[in-house]
Amino acid sequence: MKITIKLFAYFRDGRFKKRVSDFFDEGTSPGEVITSLGLDLEDVGVIMVNNRHAAADSCLTEGDVLAVFPRIGGG
Amino acid sequence: MADKIYRVNMTTLTTTVEDVPENLQGHGGRGLTSNIVAAEVEPTCHPLGSHNKLVIAPGLLSGTTAANSGRISCGAKSPLTGTIKESNAGGTAAAMLAKLGCKAIIIEGMPSTKDNWYNLVLNDKGITINEETELVGKGNFAIVETVASRLGEKFGVISIGQAGEMKMASANISIKDPDSHLRSCGRGGLGAVMGSKQIKFIALAPTDNKVAIADPEAFTAANRVFTKALVDNPISQALGQYGTNVLVNIINEAGGLPTRNFTSGQFDGHEEISGETMHDTIVEREGKPKHNCHKGCVIQCSQIYNDMNKKYKTSGFEYESIWAMGADCCVDNLDHIAEADSMMDDMGIDSIETSVAMGVAMEAEVLEFGDGAEFCRILKDEVLAGTGLGRIIGSGAGSVGRAYGVTRVPVVKNQAIPAYDPRAIKGIGITYATSTQGADHTMGYTIATNILGVGGTVDPLSKEGQVELSRNLQIATAAIDSTGMCLFIAFAALDDATCLPALVDMLNARFGIGLTADDVTALGISILKTEHEFNLAAGFTNKDDRLPEFFSEEPIAPHNVIWDFTDEELDTFWDF
User: Is the pLDDT assigned to residue B483 strictly greater than 80?
Assistant: First the structure.
């Protein structure tokens, strides 16, 4: 399936901001994508799929936009 | 020696030093300013008249070695909202006031003629009122520089710029930081109240005095645990690296970044103004990504942002200011935003209110969306110059809407809504609607739980649980705002079980008392209720706890959602 992966803050270091990937099979979870990028799920603060919060073990489908943030805050 | 209250009467130009009454001894920061305003200010008075009072107070732990305890509170009846108001900032003043044994400064009355301006100087011997001529008409940077040469580099400064002198309803009060830059008590126009008293600045003398600690050993032990909780927290660490502006991209991704005067929830230029881009720009231009706005801050969310020539341009470059000038006005150039931020610091005007006002002016076709250069020109040639247009913009978003007949005016109780769209992040809408001080994200920062996954999770698009979330956070915030603590301790406090007990232990060790966590909650409740009662007596009703109607009628992309809380649901907020 084709998905778009977006990384934020220091997750971009040595990786990328945004990438379209057709590497993953339908039903792959955000957690599996994240781990494949060499990121530790422990460091992940927020996962969004198509602008909505999503669980690491949910299922991705064709055309999804996955956004991965470390633990961040502000205000 | 016990702390004192310094009362300054600007009608008679006299000062008195008073013992702290017993009922105020357990208060500091916001709890103290709000209790004094509620007790001494007639709620229906004109905010810029002789009956309003400006109260300035350090927090309960300010001046101690407690990490992140350097917030100072300013309080009065607000000329922007007509409600009670407390606005707090970092800088050096809170610790200096506390070390000088000053529980609060209360400034009341007003001079009988408009011609004379004054400064106040507080030192070990007391407080004096002095006539000021040199700095009238000058900006905050000139004040800081002149006070340093006139009185000494180490003096603290609390000041107003030209906006405060002109009594613009968005004027702020500036606080000198450790690098002689500025922090701002930004919201609610308290600079105009100081201007109405014709006080240009308050200088605070350095002292070798130390704040008394009842149980030093217990205090040190608790501070160690507290500091560790802050330092170990990953959010604290990210704040140090990217500043609060790290939020641009996540709020944009969540569809809650108000764009083009609140007509979309996402901004095409988000990457250009993001914390990531800002960090890289700062490093490239040899600025400082990390900077502490007060001594003892271990989070260091501030920064030094240099211009293209690697010269200092601005600091304390916050997400909400960058959002307001950026996404809300569609300006995607960080240098224009930094220039505007610096000008607003210097003239002493709230960068949120003024920029949201500029977004409303863009909708009224006073200038075009995205025109950062014109934004800066209007600040300089109109607002700073005090022209008719400048005064309309300087009086806030509501003022621009009224002057130009715009109906899409994002304000609650006439104060501009910041940085998070309440249709797409519903918890913060409850805070905007019900806050005792008009729309203000810091009153109950539901973004933590709605978006950032801190303190649990509450779906931002669902109505479920939002009233309770906002209420609990508003209560906790009122208490934290009384301690002198920076609100960013909340990220650690919400997720690290050691953090809050350590804070309570520090309060107990400082004063030799035996507060429990429940007592601290009770303090927060009592402050909120005191503020709410002031507002009711000033003429506000539950009908004022509402968002503007366009939020209920105009769906916002990408989620295409509206604000859908009923009046009855909103009114349950005060059921406690």
Answer: yes
Contact A70 B253 (CB under 8 A): no
Rounded-to-5 percentages of helix, strand, coil across chain A: 20, 30, 50
> Does residue B396 surpass a pLDDT of 90?
yes
CATH placement of domain B4-204: 3.60.9.10
Q: What letter would DSSP give residue B438?
A: S
Q: Is B386 exposed, middle or buried (0-12, 13-18, 19+ CB in 10 A)?
A: middle
Residue B211 near residue B103 (C-beta atoms within 8 A): no
Domains of chain A: total: 1
pLDDT in tens, B152-211: 999 999 999 999 999 999 999 999 999 999 999 999 999 999 999 999 999 999 999 999
Residue B251 CA to residue B332 CA, distance in Å, equals 16
Location of structure tokens 């108001």: B85
Distances (CA, A) of B411 to B189, B407, B478: 14, 11, 22
Residue of A nearest to B495 (CA): A71
Chain B hits for A69, CB-CB cut-off 8 Å, are 249-250, 253
Kindly state the tokens that stand for B8. Answer: 């300054």
Whether A67 and B253 lie within 8 Å, measured CB to CB: yes
**Could you report the per-residue pLDDT of A22-32, keeping only the tens digit for each?**
999 999 999 99
Tokens for B502, please give them: 């350590």
**Does residue A58 belong to any structural domain of this protein?**
yes
Specify the pLDDT at position A48. Answer: 98
Whether A59 maps to a domain, the answer reads yes
In CATH, what number is assigned to the domain containing residue A66? Answer: 3.10.20.30
Question: Is A28 a domain residue?
Answer: yes
Residue carrying the six token digits 């100087």:
B121
Report residue B1's pLDDT band, with 50, 70 and 90 as the boundaries: low
Neighbour count for residue B21 (Cβ, 10 Å): 11
Let me know: does B97 contact B117? Beta carbons within 8 Å: no
Packing angle, helices B499-511 and B216-232, rounded to 10: 150
Mean pLDDT of B294-308: 95
CB B72 within 8 A of CB B56: yes
User: Is there a contact between A75 and B275 (Cβ–Cβ < 8 Å)?
Assistant: no
Q: How confident is the model at residue B2 (pLDDT cuts 50, 70, 90)?
A: confident
Nearest CB to A73 within list B442, B448, B457: B448
Report d(CA B15, CA B510) in Å as an integer.
29
B375: which residues sit within 8 A by CB, 6+ positions away?
A: B325, B329, B331, B336, B340, B358, B367
Specify the pLDDT at position B453. Answer: 95
* B396 alpha-carbon distance from chain centroid: 16
- Range of A9's domain? 3-70
- Paired strand residues for B14: B9
Give me the CATH topology for the region B223-574.
1.10.569
B118 DSSP β-pair partners: B131, B199
Residue in B closest to A68 by C-alpha: B250
Q: Is the peptide bond before B558 cis (omega within 30 degrees of 0)?
A: yes
Q: DSSP code of B24?
A: G
pLDDT per residue as tens digits for the range B7-24: 999 999 999 999 999 999
Q: B4-204 with B223-574: one CATH topology?
A: no
In a domain, A75, yes or no: no
* Per-residue pLDDT at A36 exceeds 80: yes
The domain spans of chain B are 4-204, 223-574
Q: What percent of chain B has pLDDT over 70?
A: 100
Using the beta-carbon criterion (under 8 Å), do A9 and B244 form an inter-chain contact? no
